[in-house]
Amino acid sequence: MAKEFFKDLPDTTTPITAPRMNALLDGEEPLGNIVVDSIETTNLLNPNTLINGTVSASDGSYSNVNYVVVSDYIPVEANKSYTIKLNNITNSQFLFRIVLYTTGKVYSSTLHTGSEVTEKTVTPSIDGYVRICFGLNGYQLLSPTSIAQANPQFEQSSSATAYKPFIEFGVDNLKNEEIVVGNIKTKNMFDKNNAINGYRLGPDGNLTTDSIYFVSSYIPIKQNTTYTLNRDIVPSPAYNCYVLYDNNKDFIVRSDFYANTKHTFTTTQDARYIRLTDYNQNLNSLQLEEGSTATNYMPYQNLSGMETYSNSETVIGTFLGKPLYRKVIDLGNLPNNTTKNILHNISNLDVLVNCYGTAKRTDGNILILPNIDKDGLQYSVRLSANSYQLIVTTGSDRSAFLGYAVMEYTKTTD
Predict the structure, then answer these.
(1) Alpha carbon of 279 to those of 11, 143, 247, 274: distances in Å?
(2) pLDDT reported for residue 262
(3) How far apart are CA 300 and CA 24, in angstroms?
(4) Where does the chain hold its CATH 2.60.120 domain(s)?
(5) 3-state DSSP assignment of residue 223
(6) What CA–CA distance (Å, rounded) separates 133 from 74?
(7) Of 305 and 276, more confident
């Protein structure tokens, strides 16, 4: 029955969406690989990436069905034991399929299929990824939510240990969680959430409209340093390239890398930034890392504890289950005993969770905004907003101060 349940289905193509990650500060000096020695989670399975569907035992291809649930790609190491367990379930008719892929996410072998159990241990023979299918005998309908509620845990262990939730490594995700000492590295310098879709880089490093490509943001790099690019697909036609820029983000050189999935290069003496162009289908696999070796793909992660303040809209966490955005607004000179309206250019503003800022005078005197002065309201500075403007109100002449405001908010469209 188990074999019949996991019969191979017609191949379809459905994209898997990875979780959103935080971004680096604009213009931040590169730090290379960031190593954090105080973070570890034993659970490698992110329940938020579960979808309906199955993967074939013969070639690992994905098919969309409503009675099986499948995980995203989970990194594994060769010759180490991994155990999958459903912790909060009593049904003894559960089935697993565990399929192994190479580091390039190409099918390698099927480690396990069938068995009416809620726990299974496997040992991959190569470094790469696994995807895990969950099903019930008799083609009973399953949803990603029902599996998530069963507290799935996939861990590097020869037997199941006490359940721990998956921890998504962003600064805002490390609150109110039990943290165990260990080693986690973030190496991918390419943040796909800051990519610009529908463009590629032209011969002079400027943007050119092209619907099948994307362009990265400016990524800080080191001079005279070796980096490696890695992705899944070599497209044709191909305008895949990288462009180096100096400290002022002026063009230095463009170089193509369309011929291979991996490309190693060394930056120039005056290089301070890089931008990448690649095929849309590589958005979820492109990796830029320091060094001459292409390692297993890891999504961009900000583990350094740095806050993100940019005049571009940036996701910094969540508020009541919705994405929380941050944007810095240039106030210019504060008004003279009046009100000043500044367009914030935020679309679909919903809840303004926080609004604060700073202003500085040429003599070095600094105001923290909003400002309530002990000598009376006439000396205070008020911040408020509506759907399209940030509003600054003063009760006296504050025009000698140049200011910035930070807006943190949700959107009606999320």
Answers:
(1) 22, 32, 27, 17
(2) 85
(3) 10
(4) 31-40+167-304
(5) coil
(6) 12
(7) 276
Query: 223 exposed, middle or buried (CB, 10 Å; 0-12, 13-18, 19+)?
Result: middle
CB–CB of 154/74 below 8 Å? Answer: yes
CA 30, 35, 36: angle at the middle one, nearest 5? Answer: 125
- Do 158 and 82 touch, CB atoms closer than 8 A? no
Q: Which two tokens stand for residue 73?
A: 């790609």
pTM exceeding 0.70 = no
Burial label, 209 (beta-carbon count in 10 A; 0-12, 13-18, 19+): exposed
Return the closest-CA partner of residue 393 out of 355, 366, 350: 355
373 backbone dihedrals φ, ψ, rounded to 5°:
-90, 140
- Which range is least confidently modeled, 76-90, 167-181, 231-245? 167-181
**Whole-number Å distance between alpha carbons of 83 and 86:** 10
**CATH 2.60.40 segments of the chain:** 314-411
Instruction: Look up residue 363 and give its two tokens.
Output: 């003599």
Token digits for 399? Answer: 């025009």
Taking 90 as the threshold, does the pLDDT of residue 377 lie above it? Answer: no
Q: Residue 244: pLDDT above 90? A: yes
Category of 350 on φ-ψ map: left (φ > 0), alpha (ψ -120 to 50) or beta: alpha
Beta bridge partners of 130: 74, 100
Q: Taking the alpha carbons of 250, 251, 252, 258 in that order, is the dihedral positive or negative?
A: positive
- Grouping H, G, I as helix, E, B as strand and the rest as coil, residue 193 is helix
For residue range 344-366, list pLDDT tens digits in order: 999 999 999 999 999 999 898 99
Our measurement of the distance from residue 8's CA atom to the centroid of its chain's CA atoms, rounded to an integer in Å, reads 32
CATH class of the structural domain 314-411: mainly beta
Higher-confidence position of 336 and 178: 336
Q: Which residue carries 């409209």 as its tokens? A: 209
CATH T-level topology, domain 31-40+167-304: Jelly Rolls (2.60.120)
